[in-house]
Amino acid sequence: MTGIDVARIRADFPILKRTVRDGKPLIYLDSAATSQKPVEVLDAERTFYETSNAAAHRGAHQLAEEATAAYEASRARVGGFVGVEAENIIFTKNASESLNLAAYAFSNATALARWGTPVDPRFELNPGNSVVVTEMEHHANLIPWQEVCAKTGASLRWLPLTDSGRLDLADLDDLIDTSTKVVSVVHQSNILGTINPVAEIMARAHAVGAVGVVDACQSIPHMPVDVRALGADLVAWGGHKMLGPTGIGLLYGTSEILQAMPPFLTGGSMIATVEMERSTYAAAPQKFEAGVPMVAQAVGLGAAVAYLEKLGMAEVAAHEQELTAYSLMALSGIPGVRIIGPTETVDRGSAISFVVEGIHPHDVGQVLDNMGIAVRVGHHCAWPTCRRFGVPATTRISPYIYNDQRDIDALVEAIAHAQHFFKVAS
Amino acid sequence: MSLEALYQDIIIDHYKNPRGRGLLEFPLGTAFHVNPTCGDEVNLQVAAAADGGLLIGYEGTGCSISQASASVLYELVQGRQVTEAENIRRAFVELMHSQGHGEPDEAVLGDGIAFVGVAKYPARIKCALLPWMAFQDAEIKGGLMLETNSDGE
């Protein structure tokens, strides 16, 4: 037993009280897609709108001051949650935007350099340069880099996977070489659940002078993460997978890298001085936050962080480890079920993908949905990873703090029902 | 709604025993369609026989709904004239947009009437329509139908 009291936690999540599909109690096992929100987060957002709503970083009236203070307090809170200063945290729309912000630093710097604007040479890409990702990236950490390569002539490389769903680092030193300008890797795979040795990869990136980026969307909500210990220059994640509202993402950057990077979105708020022909930019984080920011979402995210801190991330991780072990055992025990990804809990998170022999994941998901169980089916925005394992799609469960063993028991029963319904041997 | 109402026996039967599955030797038009949210695939081919009747070839991977729909399409359209096939296609598309309130005509849609329950599940309508979209596209590519005749589905 861990210090997580699931029954008590569930009481804080109004949505978990509802029923679905003709009165079935909701069993939500899709938190890797988005987590549910505790009432504290909903209240924080509502209270902000009811009492302090104004455009942050604009105006001098009292409400504007309060909105700015609330927005910046959330930044400090999120920074503290991952062990860094507020000034190293940039608010974005979502993690995809955070990763695009990183990727655009390279294509923008390359374009600026072509017309004579001085840029930090680390961001300038040319034919002959390489960008390195892994074969288990979410599309959000793959397609932005494909675009960068298409715009600059750099080539894309990737660290391959083993059959058990781990990174194959045998050729790490060859794949990341002196041609490499950026290495962007996922901390915890959203489809396989694998937790990668990112510090080792970042060390290799830095040894060749490359910029290191980490996608921490699936790790920061689920375990204690000291982002500095990851050894990356930039770390991206989202708010809505960690109990926060949708519409707010995060990017951590070292002070040095944030200063060196060109801006991404431009316009209001991100400037120092503006003339008709040219402008100068504010220091980070403002340099990367053009436009009226998402204050209410930031306030909600601050409440989400407070909620997780109250539980304790070590306790959250312990609860999930226990549930992951139980889930792996339960799923492995069903004839015809194959887990795609690591089958032991070492360096593994709670997201578990599987296929049921003879039943397409869509159909598995439909039967589960009919029994009130919400899972994700499809390629999970990691299509190349599916191809690597020779499956068109998978069914994925991703439990969180409000799930317990009974949810997994219900899942196992539902899978057996699917096998019976589709008349496949089980 | 019950699972049995969605997955009628006819659908399961077409899924497990697909009719006419396989590619044509000399296709006039080929269309490869995927459902990008789930990765389901259908490769559909058309050709015309000497009497003008349609020849259909197909392959694919995906869920029971998408693959059964391809099999039903074959059964309904193989050997038909282009205009007849177009009426069937339109009837099927209309059924899928009926939100489950459609009253399909078995004389037109044959086993296709079994898909009436699918129309209640927005996420699955795309599965059922996948081969029919590919069919229309293949006809256009094969010069059997003008693009302006399409209804934009």
CATH class of chain B: Alpha Beta
Sheet with most strands of chain B: 3 strands, antiparallel
- The gyration radius over C-alpha positions of chain A equals 22 Å
- Poorly predicted runs of chain B are none
**What is the CATH third-level topology name of the largest domain in chain A?**
Aspartate Aminotransferase, domain 2
Strand order of the largest sheet of chain A: 4-10-9-8-7-5-6
Runs of chain A in which pLDDT lies below 50 for 5 or more consecutive residues are none
Oligomeric state of shown chains: heterodimer
Number of domains of chain B: 1
Largest β-sheet summary of chain A: 7 strands, mixed
CATH class of the largest domain in chain A: Alpha Beta
Helical percent range of chain A? 25-40%
CATH topology of chain B: Sufe protein. Chain: A
Most extensive protein-chain contact, per-chain counts: A-B, 18 and 20 residues
Calculate the mean pLDDT score of chain B and round it: 92
Radius of gyration of chain B using CA atoms only: 14 Å
